[in-house]
Design goal:
The complex is a heterodimer of chains A (about 500) and B (about 1050).
Chain A (H helix, E strand, L loop, with lengths): L1 H18 L21 H22 L3 E3 L6 H4 L10 H15 L4 H8 L2 H22 L19 H20 L20 H23 L2 H14 L3 E3 L35 E3 L1 H7 E3 L4 E2 L3 H4 L46 E4 L1 H14 L3 H18 L4 H8 L13 H11 L5 H8 L35 H4 L1 H7 L12 H4 L6
Helix pairs in contact in A: 2-4, 2-6, 4-6, 5-6, 6-7, 6-8, 7-8, 8-9, 8-12, 9-12, 12-13, 12-15, 13-15
Chain B lengths: L1 H25 L4 H14 L3 E9 L2 E2 L4 E4 L5 E3 L5 E6 L4 E5 L6 E4 L7 E2 L10 E3 L5 E3 L7 E5 H6 L5 H4 L7 E5 L8 E5 L12 E4 L2 E2 L20 E7 L2 H4 L10 E6 L5 E15 L13 E2 L2 E2 L20 H5 L3 E13 L3 E12 L7 E14 L4 E16 L11 H4 L35 H7 L2 E17 L4 E20 L11 E24 L3 E24 L17 E23 L3 E12 L8 E11 L11 E13 L10 E3 L7 E3 L2 E2 L7 E14 L4 E17 L11 E2 L1 E21 L3 E19 L5 E8 L3 E6 L6 E7 L8 E2 L7 E10 L4 E11 L2 E11 L2 E4 H8 L4 H6 L3 E3 L3 E3 L5 E3 L3 E3 L2 H6 L9 E3 L2 E12 L2 H6 L4 E15 L26 E2 L7 E10 L1
Classes of the chains: A mainly alpha (about 500), B mainly beta (about 1050).
Amino acid sequence: MKRYIYTFSILLALLTISSCNKLDLNYNPVQPVTVPSNQRLPSIQANLAYSLYSQARFAAYHSYYVTSRTGNSNAQTDTWNYNNINRMGAWRWHYFDVGSNISGPAGMLLRASEDGDNNYTGVGKIMLALSFLSATDVFGDMPYEEAYNGTFNPKYDSQERIYQGVEILLDEGILELKNVSPLARSMNSSVDLIYGGDYNKWIALAEGIRARMKLHTANFKNGYQDVINAVNLALANFDDALFRYPSKSDLNFEKNLWGEARPNPEWQFADIRNDLVNSLPTDVFMKAMTVDATTNSYDPRLYKLTTPGVNRKYLGAKMSEGLRDVSLPSGTVYQDFANLYNGYWTADSSMYPYMVKEELYFIKAEALYHTNDKQGAYSAYKLGVETNLRRLGVEEGQIINFLGSNKLAQSIEKLTIADIMMQKWVALYLQAETWVDIRRYGYSNVAYPDLYYPRYALAEWGGRYIQRFVYDPQTEYVYNPKEIERLGAGSRDWVFKPLWWAENSTLKN
Amino acid sequence: MLNMRKYLLFSIALGVTIPGYSFAKKSSLSNNSDALIKAYFHLKSIQNSISGLVSDNSGPISGVTVRVVETGVSVSTDTNGKYSINAAIGNTLRFTSIGYDPVDVKVVNVVTNVQLKVIDNSLDEVVVTALGIERNKKNLTYSVQTVTGDDLRASNQGNILNGLQGKIAGAQISSSGGSPGLPTEIILRGSSSLTGDNQPLMIVDGIRVNNSSSNGTVNRIADINPEDIEDISILKGAAAAALYGIDAASGAIVITTKKGKAGVMQIGGSYKAFVETMGRLPSQQTIYTTGTGGTYDESSGSSWGRKFRYDETIYNNVQRFFQTALTHDANLNINGGSEILQYYMSGGYRKAGSMVPNTSQDKISFLMKGTAKLSSKTSVTASANYVENDIQEGLGGASAGGWINSILTYPLRYDILEYQKPNGEPLYSYIESEDDGRNARISPMWGVMRNPRNNNVNRFIVNGSVDYKATDWLKLNYRLGQDWTSSKYRTVTTPGTPGSYFEGFVSESNSNSKFITSTFNATVQKKILDDFNLSLILGANSDYYESAGVGYQGEGFLVPDIFSPNVIERDGIILSESLSRRQRYAIYGDLSFSYKNLLTIGMTGRNDWTSTLSPQHRQFYSPSYSGSFTFSELISPEDWFGKLRVSYAKVGKDAPIYRTNTNLRQVATVGGGFVVDATGGNPNLRPERTSEFEIGTELGFWNRRLNIDFTYYKRESIDMIMTPRVPLPSGYVIMTFNAGSLWNRGIEASVNIIPVKNDNITWSSTLNAWKNTSKMTQFAGDIVRFPYTNAQLTVGKAASALDEHVLGISGTDYKRTEEGYVVVDANGYPVIDATEKTIGNREPEFNIGWLNKINYKGFNLSFMWDFRFGGDILNASRQRMMSTGTGYDVGQWRDKEFVFNGVVAQEDGSYVKNEKPVVLNYSFFANNYYQVGTNFVEKINWARVRYITLGYTLPSSLASKFGLNRLGLEFSAQNPFIITNYSGGDPEVNSAGPNAGGAGGASTMGVDNGAIPLPRAFSFGLNIGL
């Protein structure tokens, strides 16, 4: 009897003793909480490429580069109906995959500042600026001041406010990079996959981003001089900001998202996966590429941006109609079109552009054009075209031929805004920035002579052109109904409401 | 401590076999081996005809079963209460009859008369309550429902939870479909959390067991062999489960396994064979072939093309896909012992085929259990249960449903059975010339046959307890148990499969998880002043959970026919390790007072400490108060029984593991490095609280041949903990937070009646009826409508909205006038209203389960009806079939002229009836019809037979010819028949299962997203006794 009581007392005592300190185990022992910034930067750069792609994934259709093959089949790209999607991947890529990893509660900036690695702070801020700029250009108003402060219903800031924030981020980033601490952690090419730790190139990119941003508002803010200043600063040191993928890899996550493998890496959403396999080049694209229709002579870049279709023909399909386009020759099959894959920007191993040099030339051309410096505009325009021809690896002879062809304005007097904008359109093939240009010009035929209203856009839209993306339906509409209500983002035609710089634009029509 | 624990567990596991065995050996003079020897000799010993009269205090009773325990021979008493049976002197006769206490009598005389005592039918029985405490049902102060092992087995379901369907008032049980490896969800008294697990705590013989369904596979309670179950107590309310404190919020299922009984060794065996065929299937159109917008297009996977030509074959792919399969199930158990040592051993093997090709289940289970009386005061019980459960699953995981969507939408011009060439290469049904197959179309059969998913589980549940009776009023008990599960989940994508993993892909996760429960109880039971009874339990409990896993995934097989990481390039393999841990401690007390049989009051209190919350929030207290008043004691208690019970309890719930801080994780991108984990930490989490009020009554009439149990409850969940997707500007994708409050309230009624009971026939009928309603009363922040991550389908979402039903459906409707007429535009088409609103409630309005058992001589028949009234289904399967053009209604309505029943707005603001005919073309369907949620919400009723089981026990004279004591035959049908207004397949749907991955799976009950309909099965069984 005594023995049992003794045994039980021991067991009870053991139980009580063992309870001390055993409750402090709610931390994951096999995952880190923080790592040095050099282990954060590469994935942020990879994610920024994904993020820019996620915007271009739909913007490429809204910019009339490509259209769905079957026509009237894709709600977002053919009928401009965003009402039935569950997730808007572009929202997540900006706020979480890029933004939170830079400046969220567990972001790189925190550790960089603790460690005194102000070079990482600088690069981080410039990347964040680019991410915010490209995101607000598809979404409009969105949280900026209250982002990452823990609230689930942050205030949505006006796009104007976000633009101010982007400029501050650029200034702060440049300042850090101009004063990199000698004790800061090194940044080499295995960490900085864009510039291999060349801070001057980052500063130039920052100026390039500034020029891009200022161009959006210059027309109604009388800001062309600022654009020209920024673009000149940028061009002085500029090198293309490109995210590179390995030339050969079997891995999903080592492929360009526009590639033929249609990669679907972790956390990619179905609607983000590229659909070029079911898409065709548009008639707008083919007209832009045609130098002389009677002789079937094309811009040499056609063979670089696309690969030949099976039937080696180069037809173009009407936006939203695809093969349904009745103006196509009867019996047309998809093989009568160029193959969209394995072009310069659409191979598994293609680079993904943050910003390319020709964009700067076209920004300069447009700004000078509107400030009546036609001479300067013309030479920037020519430089832009030539830079792009060289990038795409067009042969020297063809470059000279094409530069002298009637596809381009051959004199200062003949230079029109359409010449500049259409050549920029070609140079920025599939990039979301083109959609900004088109919306700034209100889809006008002055700047884009071949645009038209798509046949299968729903009658309900009343002939209006698409202007923006919806916010992520799965989160923003659930947690922040008051802000959504205030903005009016709950209505079926929200995506037809122009953004701030489009609303105020003086360039429309 | 840990070593000590291991040692204890080890010795418990061994304790069943070695010490048990040696006990038997040591005491060779023990009754046990004596009895064994006797049993064998008795078979040959002299048989006499024993006869007698069986009566109760009002006279002879007919239909009493008289059974010779040693031989199993049995007869029934005749109309005069007389019987005659062959038995030997010294044998034991067992007299049993419904409504009476069973009596065992040792034969000393050839005439043996017996008097039976009427029992209070179900109410006088002892029921197992929280912490395994046995209580007299008469004095119970809260509602507990019990299901016997026999009733469970009559349903012939491999998964225990499926076997409980309809047998518990207030339990909503829904399976995710009819293919191996799909989980089943049980919810008692409504959902109390919007994400995460709403299921009750699962207890087997006093220890907590694993019922997770990670990776969307089967819920792990299904590992337990139904053959081993003695009974199951369902503690529905918070008061009943209050002693479980932290786990009590969703109730508890307390399973007791069979144990050895003193007496002659009994050997039983059974074999069953099942034939499984497809149940109710959705229908498709058979008119149109592939294309889009009405135009034929071979490249399109949609069936919106032209009409089939007469010379084209149309394949009924849904029918062709499913097959008829065979399942074998064999069991053997041995049971016996002496006064000081009792044992039970069983083994089961199940090899289950499935109507889904290339899916199967192989399950082996062993259970050994022994109880030894070490002294007059001390006894030890130990058990060990081993289960191996290997499941090969079919299509897809369970995270978002959709198992057969690919079959439902596969164009009917292709034969679904053509998927590979004779050499095993993929045979694409459509491929473009410049494609290597990556973007090709292939029959879904390819995925089923060539990309299997395997779930292999090895599981040990060991359990030991020591009881010490210190004095006649003080008992001490210590119990230590561990449920250890080793699980492997592997998926393979064969090279050549269209999609991102064209070069092949393999992913495997291996994990070992364990629950270690350690409980100490001291029980004081004392009579004071004759009429007062005091019972006090004091105890302490430790509950530790750990799951350690290693997994890998890799893509691109260098050798295409070996599916192993060994043939994947080294830098293409991603390895990961996981380790989660949780520790909880509790101390508790239970005090109850009763006065005669008239009045009982009870009080419990429990204080919990948990590791999953921050130090300032980690402890909380859960009290309960309850009382019962047996008013029938006041007015002629012999004639009837009447009791009123009232209870109130407040319990808490902690957070999921590791949700209080944020980690980084390694990422697979060019350059690599670390990124913020999608799940962010929240150090401010508070415990979730649930309070519940319950009032009920139990009534018994006519010698307890009619019993009624009625309960009303209201349960409030406050500061509900959720882990959903959160706004991305917060910096995270998923986060755990205290999200709001809700209540559930409902009624439960259980009526048991024995309408016929005479010499030959006994008919017992039980009706369970229940209704639950719920309401969201508060949301954190500005949320007013909350859709669940795993059930957001194109047109509707499983969602909860403020001040509305918790299990709602959100979506769009057509624009309507104030009177409710649909507004039609000038072109004749109805106008869509963009506002998301509640368009359905997935909770049934009323449920009835009706179980009947009829015994006639050697025959027994039991069947279970299940009725459901109301409650909506979000039929996303139909939406998907409509949008791809294979839906039945497309065939019925496409290109037909139609006048919408609605009104057209006039310029003066008035409305006139729409009379404009329109053509229902592709654009209408695509841009109007299937963008409107209300078109895919259906209010469902059903009447179904869950099972019919007919058994026949051969007369013992016949059985003995085969050398058997007992030989029974059984024919059974599961899910044989259903009447329902549902337009899809089987209306029992639950797209993501109980516990789906991603951001936690809220209940997706009532969401049909490619659900595999439940099969219809027929079985034949044989059982023997030695």
